[in-house]
Amino acid sequence: MSQSAQSIELRIKDLLLEYLQPIWQANPAARTEISGATNLVSDLTLDSFQVMEFLMEVEDEYDIAIDMNALSEVHTISDLSGVVLPQLGD
Amino acid sequence: MPLLDKFEAAATIRAAMQAGDHNPTNIVFDEIISPTEGMVEGRRTILAGTNNYLGLTFDPACLAAGTRALHEQGSGTTGSRMANGSFTAHTQLERALADFYSLPYAMVFSTGYAANLGTLAALLSPGDAVLLDADAHASLYDGCKMSGADIFRFKHNDVSSLEKRITRLGDRARDCLIVTEGMYSVLGDCAPLKEIVDIKERFGALLLVDEAHSLGVFGERGTGVAEAQGVADGVDFFVGTFSKSLGAMGGFCASPHAELELFRYVSRPFIFTASSSPSIIATTHEALRQISAPPRVA
């Protein structure tokens, strides 16, 4: 069954919230609202290692392989869902 | 954004480090006393942060070989081997490295960084797929990036993560390259090369192992972790550096594949770099000779 960009974005948000829980528990001041426009680096202050780690969670969720070169254009959750969607096929 | 404005973030980080008692990025040795000791801020200090694993930087035979080469062949080569020619010493070191790994082919680069950059950029092309351990050294990542290949990271030393990702490549798995280190510089742990070689063989991929930190340290003959785990025959490309256990500077690639000899014609980090100075080649060769020799019994 094909998935819409919206449903992928929602699922990535859930995954991101799971990923951020221990980080926010350690640093409650970092807690913030998350939307499709949330910037993974500037809004969530994730470092590049954490972004890559989270990306692997997304890969495993959808059983896909994401080329690291594609990430230079990924800044927000919406950008990331845009990379995932074409790999899911019909 | 103006070009120079992006350095503000680095300036902030530097200022924070300078505010402490010791800035770890700004250590100066006033004097080198031995392979393991130096004078830092007026104090005799143990150099625990070096990679001088075998303490060969002051080895009398290495110093003598380097001094002799300096006097006989001069201070530098002043050019690239492809454009200006090789010294016999470069080709002799390549032969010695190939013999050390019991492989037919070896190639010497001017730094360890250039070895990884030059090997990967020659081996991979746009459209190829490479599977890279998440904690692999920056030079391995940069080499993959320079090649233009599609880069897929797997979780550090996680065999199931590698297997999942190589499976996802489908038909491309047959032509992909797996890249790992022997012993990891970041964490000091070793790759599960036995399992990785098994995956490589099942999928028909190639395997590159960076033994930079394991050369001279792991394996009965000192070639690295692949030898220690009994799977050296499963490695397609060994890369490494002369700047750690061999106490000099430079890097290499050794391989069972005859195509390595053709890397010289397509590897830009090899072609467009001046070759290593004769004294560096000489100390490296002597250090390699020492670790290749059977252990001395006291």
What does this structure look like?
The complex is a heterodimer of chains A (90) and B (298). With 90 residues, chain A is mainly alpha-helical. Chain A has helices at residues 5-26, 48-62, 77-88. Helix content of chain A is 54%, strand content 0%. The N and C termini of chain A lie close together (6 Å). Chain B is α/β, with parallel strands linked by helices and 298 residues long. Chain B has twelve helices and ten strands. Chain B has a seven-stranded mixed beta sheet, with helices on both faces. A three-stranded antiparallel beta sheet of chain B has the order 1-2-3, with no helix packed on it. In chain B, a hairpin with a 2-residue loop joins strand 2 (37-40) and strand 3 (43-46). In chain B, 44% of the residues are buried. At the A-B interface, helix 2 of A face strand 6 and helix 7 of B.
Strand content of chain A: under 5%
List the total number of helices of chain A: 3
Query: SSE order of chain B, as H and E?
Result: HEEEHHHEHEHEHEHEHEEHHH
Question: How many beta-strand elements of chain B?
Answer: 10
What is the radius of gyration of chain B computed over CA atoms, rounded to a whole number of angstroms?
20 Å
Helix/strand order of chain A: HHH
Strand order of the largest sheet of chain B: 4-10-9-8-7-5-6
Distance from N terminus to C terminus of chain B (CA atoms, Å) equals: 65 Å
Number of distinct beta strands of chain A: 0
Largest beta-sheet characterization of chain A: none
List keywords for this structure.
heterodimer; A: 90 residues; mainly alpha; 3 helices; B: 298 residues; alpha/beta; seven-stranded mixed β-sheet; three-stranded antiparallel β-sheet; 12 helices; 10 strands; globular
Task: Please specify the SSE layout and strand pairing.
The complex is a heterodimer of chains A (90) and B (298).
Chain A (H helix, E strand, L loop, with lengths): L4 H22 L21 H15 L14 H12 L2
Chain B lengths: L6 H13 L11 E4 L2 E4 L2 E4 L13 H14 L7 H4 L3 H13 L4 E5 L2 H12 L5 E5 L4 H10 L2 E5 L4 H10 L8 E5 L11 H11 L2 E5 L14 H4 L8 E5 L9 E5 L4 H7 L1 H4 L6 H15 L6
Parallel strand pairs in B: 5-6, 5-7, 7-8, 8-9
Antiparallel strand pairs in B: 1-2, 2-3, 4-10, 9-10
Helix pairs in contact in B: 2-12, 4-12, 5-6, 7-8
